[in-house]
From TrEMBL:
Oligomer and partners: Homodimer.
Pathway: Cofactor biosynthesis; biotin biosynthesis; 7,8-diaminononanoate from 8-amino-7-oxononanoate (SAM route): step 1/1
Protein family: Belongs to the class-III pyridoxal-phosphate-dependent aminotransferase family. BioA subfamily.
UniProt site (Participates in the substrate recognition with KAPA and in a stacking interaction with the adenine ring of SAM): 25
InterPro entries, A to Z: Aminotrans_3 (IPR005814), Aminotrans_3_PPA_site (IPR049704), BioA (IPR005815), PyrdxlP-dep_Trfase (IPR015424), PyrdxlP-dep_Trfase_major (IPR015421), PyrdxlP-dep_Trfase_small (IPR015422)
Keyword Oxidoreductase: no
Modified sites of kind N6-(pyridoxal phosphate)lysine: 279
Cited function: Catalyzes the transfer of the alpha-amino group from S-adenosyl-L-methionine (SAM) to 7-keto-8-aminopelargonic acid (KAPA) to form 7,8-diaminopelargonic acid (DAPA). It is the only aminotransferase known to utilize SAM as an amino donor.
Pfam family, any one: Aminotran_3
Catalytic reaction(s) noted: (8S)-8-amino-7-oxononanoate + S-adenosyl-L-methionine = S-adenosyl-4-methylsulfanyl-2-oxobutanoate + (7R,8S)-7,8-diammoniononanoate
Protein's name according to its UniProt entry: Adenosylmethionine-8-amino-7-oxononanoate aminotransferase
Cellular component aspect of the GO annotation: cytoplasm
Length: 429
């Protein structure tokens, strides 16, 4: 029987959720007790019981303008009134053309050609396919491995999983099935000449078998929320260029201002050969990712076997998503992010500083609109989340990390509220 009243309705829906709906990395039937969201506006999520939570997660890095932004709502409605989707084989449309052109204009120099697909993981698959196809087309089929540093996260489909942190990471379940890649230790926060030399040396030793190096620039996200010195990106650029290896930057989490620069790559002034964007691309409204590459990569692929890139998802270039992405880019172009992100950074630093040295806290770090408290022990996710919710804040701690990446429209008072929520989650741990 269906839901009967407002309260019974929520309880009944949650029972159905547990019975039928998979959640990330969850068992079936569900054991956890998710919070039922009814609506979201600005930086607030409204739960079915009427509670309002300040969103400290931007729906996993994506909702940079908050929820129900009038410009994004309008772009979506306007495009829905025209055409929600058409196949991209043999057809094209203005939203995709304009978005690809704009992305080519705002990304680091040399990135010209844009593949529009439907999720970050698929965007990374496409990046890897581009690198492998281009190496084959250049007559180097032996270059079939990827190199990366440990501590990374690039998605949940198979090739991306193979370049995530191999030990203790989310994908250790798949050891023995995944392609075996070349790993070097995770990059340190500060500049370390010795590390830079080991990085170069590892890549040089395997140069003949590596198609591409793939990394998240400046911030490693879901693999551990670590920050590293941007100069390692220049080291990677040099060694890859010297050996004909492609450099892939996965900016799915770091793109669009999150780290205080428009792209992570901008901290180092480095242009990769291939770059992946997703998450905040549509301001968190719709699922869309973009993989960009240089003319050199595109020409190699196009001259090779098959004469084109071997990929073509059904929802490629979805017009609704492209239109919302254009509206999001237009908001970003207006420039508010450039002051909002440093303001959030100051608020996070202020609010999280007292947690340095607190019981159980191993490290506190802030970069741009990202604040991280690393504990010296695993966090009880349900307990820590509940403690933050009791403070009116939505957080999603994992492993030993309690962290936030709020929407850019979060004001000072709400940033303070988020840091109070983090303090409550720390205390509950
Ligand atoms: N790459 C990075 C850096 C990510 O942070 C993520 C998602 O967390 C992905 C790739 C995968 O994106 P999606 O979850 O949209 O498949």
């Amino acid at each position: 029987s269906g839901p009967t009243g407002p309260d019974d309705g929520a309880a009944a829906l949650l029972a159905l959720d547990r019975a039928h709906v998979w959640h990330p990395y969850g068992p079936m039937p569900g054991r956890s007790e998710p919070y039922l969201v009814e609506s979201a506006e600005g930086v607030r999520l409204r739960l079915s019981d009427g509670r309002e939570l300040v969103d400290g997660m931007s729906s996993w890095w994506a909702a940079i303008h908050g929820y129900r932004h009038p410009a994004l709502d309008a772009a979506l409605a306007e495009q829905a009134g025209r055409m929600s989707h058409v196949m991209f084989g043999g057809l094209t449309h203005e939203p995709a053309i304009r978005l690809a052109t704009e992305l080519a204009g705002i990304t680091p120099e040399g990135l010209e050609h844009v593949f529009l697909c439907d999720s970050g993981s698929v965007g990374v698959e496409v990046a890897i396919k581009m690198a492998l196809q281009a190496q084959r087309a250049r007559g180097r089929p032996g270059r079939s491995r990827l190199a990366t540093w440990r501590g990374g996260y690039h998605g949940d489909t198979f090739h991306p999983m193979s370049v995530c942190d191999p030990v203790g990471g989310m994908h250790s379940l798949w050891t023995g099935v995944l392609p075996v890649q070349v790993f070097v230790e995770a990059p340190p926060a500060g500049w370390d000449e010795g590390y830079a030399a080991r990085l170069t040396d590892t890549i040089e030793r395997h140069a003949d078998e590596i198609a591409a190096v793939i990394v998240e620039p400046v911030v490693q996200g879901a693999g551990g929320m670590r920050f590293h010195h941007p100069a390692y990106l220049r080291v990677l650029r040099e060694v890859t260029a010297a050996h004909g290896i492609f450099l892939i930057f996965d900016e799915i989490a770091t793109g669009f201002g999150r780290t205080g620069r428009f792209f992570g790559a901008d901290h180092a002034g480095v242009s990769p050969d291939i770059m992946c964007l997703g998450k905040a691309l549509t301001g968190g409204y719709l699922t869309l990712a973009a993989t960009l590459c240089t003319r050199e990569v595109a020409e190699a692929i196009s001259a090779g076997e098959g004469g084109g890139l071997a990929h073509g998802p059904t929802f490629m270039g979805n017009p609704l998503a492209c239109s919302v992405a254009l509206a999001s880019l237009s908001l970003l172009r207006a420039g508010g992010w450039a002051t909002a992100v440093p303001d959030i950074e100051s608020g996070l630093k202020r609010g999280l500083k007292p947690l340095r040295g607190a019981h159980g806290v191993a490290d506190v770090r802030v970069l741009g609109a990202i604040g991280v408290v690393q504990m010296d022990r695993p966090v009880d996710m349900a307990k820590a989340t509940a403690a933050a919710v009791a403070e009116g804040v939505w957080l999603r701690p994992f492993r030993d990390l309690i962290y936030t990446m709020p929407p850019y429209v979060t004001g000072d008072a709400d940033v303070a509220r988020i840091t109070a929520g983090i303090a409550a989650a720390v205390a509950a741990t």
